[in-house]
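Reopening this ticket.

The earlier resolution said the output was attached, but the attachment link was broken on my side. Pasting everything inline this time so it's all in one place.
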Amino acid sequence: MRIGFYGMPAAGKSYVLDLIDFMETAAGSSLLREYDPYFDIRDQSGRERARKAVARRLTEKKTFIMDGHYAFGDETAFTEDDGDLYDVFLYLYVSPGLLKERMAVSGKNRKYLRFDIEEWQNREISGLRAYCHENNKDFYVLDDPPGNRFEDVSSILKFIRDIVNGYSCASYARECADDIIRKSRSDTILLLDGDKTLTTEDTSKAVFGYKTCLYDGNFYTGYQSWKQDREFGKYIFPDITEMPVHFNEKVKNALTDDSFILTSGHEKVWSFLSQRLGIGFYCGKEMSAETKLFVTKHLQEAGKYVIAYGDGLNDYFMLKQADEGYLVTRKDGSFNRSLRGRNMEGLGIV
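Inline output:
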């Protein structure tokens, strides 16, 4: 298991790595300068050659976590060799305001204040995420809303340990897709998000009164669903005998015998609803935006025609990948706020 630990300068990657005692760690910047003592005065092509050489050397190691940088300002540092090196990518997200505070008092990092820090960080996340989507690799954004200051990094350490022990949205997506293929009776598969897509309400809130800020950063990676699962474990959820939620009739009327719900909602809720509808469901701590995308890709690779319904960024990549993707709007016709700035071309609107 080779893990790439990415993030902005001054984000705190080295601090986290220093606390890891259950696997080998490496500092990317130190390795680069050991390989090439003149790395800092090389031009862009020279630095890229050094990065590629170090990445190739590290492929001999099977297990480690190493920090890295996707870009330095306007200069992209990430290479295909970096991509090939890692099995999993983590991105440590810190609020742009805090990054500026740290850079301002750092002789090494003060030079980066001339850049738009928020745009730079968003570009890094988008670039790494797109690479992982294309190459079916796990990608997790580590955030801590609402402040994104990480006063306590214990959850990060526990999450990394779980990754080493087998936690993987990409692997879970393969399991779900294989199960769907076994159960399906036709070449057309209908995939559905749960909350605010198949139902008009957030079911966990409506049924149990559960509300969380874990998704406020609008990342919807497996780290957020992993943290939600840990939150679920702190509560005692009663058995369900009735359901105070309503179905979205347009979506419900589109259901077929080969319809399957993909949701990060609570298992008790969706077990109840799926039985009522007579369709399958998949949920749990590894159900993320990436999981939904990879399920779609695996089904298509198996020759299935995929129709998908969803309402937010947790479904967006699935909808864009599907042969037919339908975006469910709010009652007033507006889009979920998590979709702000996203390209809706090719999507049907429900």
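Reporter confirms the inline version is readable. The longest strand covers residues 2-7. The chain is about 45% helix and 15% strand.
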